[in-house]
Amino acid sequence: MGKINVAIIGVGNCASSLVQGVHYYRNAQEGESIPGLMHINLGGYHISDINFVAAFDIDKNKVGKDLSKAIYTSPNNTMKFCDVPKTGITVRRGMTHDGLGKYLSKIITKAPGPTADIVGILKETKTDVVLNYLPVGSEMATKWYAEQVLEAGCGFINCMPVFIAREPYWQNRFAERGLPVIGDDVKSQVGATIVHRVLTRLFRDRGVKLERTYQLNFGGNTDFYNMLEEERLESKRISKTNSVLSQMDYDIGAENIHVGPSDYVPWLADRKFCHIRMEGRTFGDVPLNLELKLEVWDSPNSGGVIIDAIRCCKLALDRGLGGTIVAPASYFMKSPPLQFSDDEARTRTESFIAGEEQATPISLPEVQPDQAGDQVEGT
């Protein structure tokens, strides 16, 4: 069915794992079982059909380098599991806006020169799908890039917790252009949120009254370093908390749930540790408490999910679907416009891939233009 031309915003650890993964599995054969992927051939698209054509960053140590070199450049510190040959794709200077917070500015120096012509590059490279890997808290920068994507006529996958795909304003904007968007905030293969969601659903299905719960996460990558800045954390906490609460059918009370990043430990590199505690009542009001510790390499944990999301986004483009593509968003993302159980989300996504479920209608209320956010100038 041809190639899927992909552009990346933010050449960090997640981009590194994704680029490595596409190359690592480029020769995968039908019938093989690949951890983290729904299908080797998804809707007619093989993993090797993903074709990176553009990349944008602001770090002077990455801008100007070939993508194959930039993905291994400090402060990236995820696991290297594949040697990526030269791609011929030079990382271009992106827009900063609020993408560089108080802590990241201590270890990242902005590349000199003006922001590249994002729209022109996306059009010139015939980009199909744009991935947003900006740091948590990049509200203005994400909305600025969303405008560039709309202008260039591309599909958009929002991997971070600035709310685009779940918001009526942006749903309408993408629907009007006939462009698909999948988001928001990628849900890892088996990460803290998916585990917490499934356990919450298990408590509900087995009749355990969940009364209190927390999820504490810490790691050593730039994501956790950036999130030391509490002001940048609001959307991340909302995304992770609501993802868990969506699996409950009663109000636990805001004071009884705490979900979110808690600290940064540099020597952990891209490893992430998660501690979950759940306190509930069973038959006879007898207490039941659960504690769990999860350790993962954070960025590879989402690589396969995004490979599938890219291919679903391209299927939506092929089928002329615009707006938020709800089934894949509900399965791949923490904050989709509609929440389902993970089993139902997977079933709906399989139906979408097969062409049986094209889109889930969303009632879009009237919204004010200022919900797009201020489009101020920046470099």
Considering the chains and any ligands shown, give keywords for the structure.
4-stranded mixed beta sheet; 31% helix; 7-stranded parallel beta sheet; 379 residues; 13 strands; disordered C terminus; alpha/beta
Descriptive overview:
By secondary structure, the protein is of the alpha/beta class. The protein is 31% helix and 20% strand. The protein is built from eleven helices and 13 strands. It has helices spanning 13-24, 67-70, 118-124, 139-152, 168-177, 192-205, 222-226, 234-245, 300-318, 326-332, 342-354; strands spanning 4-9, 41-42, 45-46, 50-57, 92-93, 129-132, 155-158, 180-183, 209-219, 257-264, 271-281, 287-297, 323-324. The two termini are 38 Å apart.
Topology as H/E string? EHEEEHEHEHEHEHEHHEEEHEHH
Instruction: Count the DSSP helices.
Output: 11
Low-confidence stretches: 364-377
- Secondary structure tally: strands: 13
Broad structural category: alpha/beta
* Terminal Cα span: 38 Å
Q: What is the helix fraction of residues, given as a range?
A: 25-40%
- The overall pLDDT, averaged over residues, is 93
Main pleated-sheet profile: 7 strands, parallel
> What general form does the structure show?
globular
Radius of gyration: 20 Å
Beta-strand residue percentage: 15-25%
Task: Strand order, main sheet: write it out.
Answer: 5-4-1-6-7-8-13
List the topology elements.
Layout lengths: L3 E6 L3 H12 L16 E2 L2 E2 L3 E8 L9 H4 L21 E2 L24 H7 L4 E4 L6 H14 L2 E4 L9 H10 L2 E4 L8 H14 L3 E11 L2 H5 L7 H12 L11 E8 L6 E11 L5 E11 L2 H19 L4 E2 L1 H7 L9 H13 L25
Parallel strand pairs: 1-4, 1-6, 4-5, 6-7, 7-8, 8-13, 9-10
Antiparallel strand pairs: 2-3, 9-11, 11-12
